[in-house]
Amino acid sequence: MFRKFFLVLLLCTGSAAFGQGIYSWKDAGGQVHYSDMPPPDAKVRTVRQGSITPQPPARTAEGGEAAAAASPSSQQSYAEKELAFRKRRAEAAEAEEKARKAQANDQARQRECAENRAQLTALESGQRMSRFDENGERVFLDDDERSAAIERTRRIVDKTCR
Questions:
Q1: Element of type H or E holding 131
Q2: Which residues, in sequence order, are CB contacts of 120 under 8 Å at separation 6+?
Q3: Burial level of 79, CB count in 10 A (0-12/13-18/19+)?
Q4: DSSP-assigned letter for residue 30
Q5: ∠ CA 92-96-102 to the nearest 5 degrees?
């Protein structure tokens, strides 16, 4: 009795092992690998095709069967799922980096706008303004230079403070 049970158990476990496919590929170093799951980015050769065993229907949260049929071609291997996950994670990191750069650019633009508005306010206030010439000496602005500086600063404010 024990021998028959052991024999049946041995046949059942052996048939499950033979039901999987075996794949072969070479890595970058030229070493040959064998596995039941092929890598997604290598040229794979099928050594033995696995037999397809029927899958039990997937259950939903209500306990009913899922509407979509589970065919072997629609199921993803773990390597494919991992590749899809890494792709989603890279896209999320790229979107986060893009948002961070946009925020930094917006802050720089707001800072530049505030500085230009302060310069325009100072020019329009009528107080004495000066600049330094090429020799490093202080030169006070006359009325024509002041009005040119006001116009130039207004254009910059209009451009940067939209």
A1: strand 130-132
A2: 150, 153, 154, 157
A3: middle
A4: S
A5: 145
Q: Give 48's DSSP letter.
A: E
Distance CA 21, CA 15 (A): 12
The structural domains of the chain, with segments of one domain joined by +, span 75-162
Residue with tokens 């499950």: 16
pLDDT in tens, 3-45: 777 677 666 665 555 556 788 888 888 888 888 777 777 777 8
Dihedral sign (CA 62, 68, 69, 70): negative
Contact status, residue 65 vs residue 58, Cβ threshold 8 Å: yes
SS3 130: strand
Tell me if 42 sits within 8 A of 27, measured CB to CB: yes
> Which pLDDT score, from 0 to 100, does residue 6 have?
67
Model pLDDT for residues 50-106, shown as the tens digit of each residue: 654 444 444 444 544 444 444 444 577 888 889 999 999 999 999 999 999 999 999
pTM passes above 0.85: no
Q: Which of helix, strand or coil describes residue 61?
A: coil
